[in-house]
Amino acid sequence: MSALLSSLLILSLFSTGISLSSNYYEKTCPNAESLIRKAVRDAAKNDKKVPAALLRMHFHDCFIRGCDASVLLDSKGKNTAEKDGPPNVSLHAFYVIDNAKSAVESACPGIVSCADILALAARDAVVLSGGPSWVVPKGRKDGRTSLASETRQLPAPTFNISQLQQSFAQRGLSLKDLVALSGNYSSQIKLIKGRP
Ligand code: HEM
Ligand SMILES: *[C@@H]1O[C@H](CO)[C@@H](O)[C@H](O)[C@H]1NC(C)=O
Ligand SMILES: *[C@@H]1O[C@H](CO)[C@@H](O)[C@H](O)[C@H]1NC(C)=O
Ligand SMILES: *[C@@H]1O[C@H](CO)[C@@H](O)[C@H](O)[C@H]1NC(C)=O
After folding, report:
1. What is the pLDDT tens value at each position of the chain, 196 positions in all?
2. How many folded domains does the chain comprise?
3. Is 60 one of the catalytic residues?
């Protein structure tokens, strides 16, 4: 009985987390996507490394506690946030998400989550770099927990293929996903240099 109840509770918790849709803000914030795209474009004009930074930020966010914007939270008091964990060395361009959030907040206060903003900004960054486009499902909720210690859960640069595969499998990602998301050398280099 209690097992069933807890399964149901877990299910209902999950279902609030997974009720994403492509038209989530259609009525409540129709300009959200174009405002975010503009913030990404404007920043990338001044700093060609912005697109790479946004894509990696999204990856680091999603691998820890899901895509909940926990990577954006600052360390506070005794809590050291993900941002200040060891793999943060090259995470940068947080200001782009701040700019996008400000633009979206002035248009429709309190509607669009930071998690959705980051997911959209990463998509826009890839498109801006000459990569493919995709429809981003929206409706993610922002997390409130961000722990530097959990950045150990990110795949390390020293991982061999089986460790990489395991790390991705733990997040429901296949070997094909691993290859697709890691990209190939020439597309990575282009992105890092910020040249479309
Ligand atoms: C498969 C496991 C992965 C490992 C071990 C890994 C590791 C790394 C490391 C060590 C760097 C250099 C960091 C530095 O400059 O200090 C890096 C950069 C980067 N990674 Fe990954 N990564 C992985 C997967 C991914 C995935 C899945 C994505 C996105 C889909 C991604 C996107 C990037 C980007 C865009 C950069 C350049 C960031 C910048 O220059 O601002 N990586 N990665
Ligand atoms: C990364 O974390 C270190 C502490 O581990 C901190 O001193 C540094 O400011 C952080 N860098 C960024 C870009 O957040
Ligand atoms: C990968 O590394 C793990 C842990 O060190 C090891 O057990 C495993 O045999 C390695 N696999 C391959 C294919 O090298
Ligand atoms: C690797 O990326 C480059 C640049 O985006 C692309 O032209 C090439 O077809 C890709 N190669 C493979 C094997 O996907």
Report:
1. 233 223 323 323 333 456 899 999 999 999 999 999 999 999 999 999 999 999 999 999 999 999 999 999 999 999 999 999 987 667 999 999 999 999 999 999 999 999 999 999 999 999 999 888 999 999 999 999 999 999 999 999 899 999 999 999 999 999 988 988 887 655 666 655 655 4
2. 1
3. yes
Identity at 157, one-letter amino acid code: P
Of the candidates 37, 58, 60, 140, the residue annotated as catalytic is: 60
Q: Provide the domain limits for residue 139.
A: 2-192
Q: Is 88 in the pocket of ligand 2 (CB under 6 A)?
A: yes
Q: What is the CATH number of the domain that holds 29?
A: 1.10.520.10
Our answer on whether the CB atom of 182 is closer than 6 Å to any ligand 1 atom is yes
| Chain position carrying tokens 């089986």 | 162
69-87 pLDDT, tens digit each: 999 999 999 999 999 998 7
